[in-house]
Amino acid sequence: MSLESSLRANSYPGRGIIVGESANGKYAVCAYFIMGRSVNSRNRIFVEVPEDNGIETRPYDEKKLGDPSLIIYHPVRVDGHTTIVTNGDQTDTIRNGLDKGFTFEQSLRSRTFEPDAPNYTPRISAVLNVHGGKFDYQMSIIRSEDGSEDRPIHCTYSYGKPKAGEGHFIHTYKHDGDPLPSFTGEPEFVKISDDIDDFALIIWDSLNRDNRVSLFVRYIDIETGIAESRIINANK
Q1: pLDDT, tens digit, 9 for 90 and up, residues 92-131
Q2: Is 104 helix (H, G, I), strand (E, B) or coil?
Q3: Which of 38, 65, 76, 99 is deepest in the core (most CB within 10 A)?
Q4: Where are the domains of the chain?
Q5: How do residues 69-83 score in pLDDT, each as one tens digit?
Q6: What are the backbone dihedrals phi and psi of residue 28, each rounded to the nearest 5 degrees, phi first?
Q7: In this structure, what are the phi and psi dihedrals at residue 41, rounded to the nearest 5 degrees?
């Protein structure tokens, strides 16, 4: 599937994670974007956290900040050779679990979808393992079954042998709506570009201009582990 076509056809996928391998087979690639419909959701930017080799969300205008509980968090953290990408505070749940010897899937068993009735926004997560010239990744979604408050579904997808130029895309919502319908099914199969700037531009330009908020893209050299990142914020 063309990532560009998928994004252009959906005015509100919500928050999205893309993971895969660059077409030249040199880089492990991840991207995370956020969108917003409310003033509170749109009042955000991504900011680098150098000491953590990750990023955090921050309010663009402190005076407009409402409830911070579901919008201020660390979407990206690095734990050893593992890069963690999520749409909420489960980033820390995963990191703490990995440090205790739990697997990615085990670490997320204690979590459920977000408590934002009636949407019950899914928690989407991914980990990229890059070490010794090898790369593999896993993705997860925790969503409500049929919009039920007390019926979470945990789905984990493992990709042990990524193929150059290919990746997967998972997002929180099928499309815009009220309430917002949760993403269902397996992560979408998409193509991954060689160039970080080209890939970032493809994603950003394909997101709905009225709803896009921030984008983070990282390319990790599979042989050396050296990472290069880009951030684009609608609020400047």
Answers
A1: 999 999 999 999 999 999 999 999 999 999 999 999 999 9
A2: helix
A3: 76
A4: 3-233
A5: 889 999 999 999 999
A6: -85, 130
A7: -70, -35
Length of the chain: 236
Question: What does the DSSP assignment read for 154-197?
Answer: EEEEEESS--TTEEEEEESBSSS-SSPPBP-SSPEEEE--S-HH
- Cα end-to-end span (Å), the chain: 32
pTM of the model: 0.97
State CA 194 to chain mean position distance.
Answer: 19
Out of 3.60.20.20, 3.30.70.20, 3.30.1360.40, 3.40.50.10310, which CATH number does the structure's domain 3-233 have? 3.60.20.20
3-state helix, strand, coil in the chain (%, to 5): 20, 40, 45
Residue 221 carries which side chain, given as an amino acid letter?
Answer: D
Q: Tell me how crowded residue 134 is: count the other CB atoms within 10 A of its CB.
A: 14
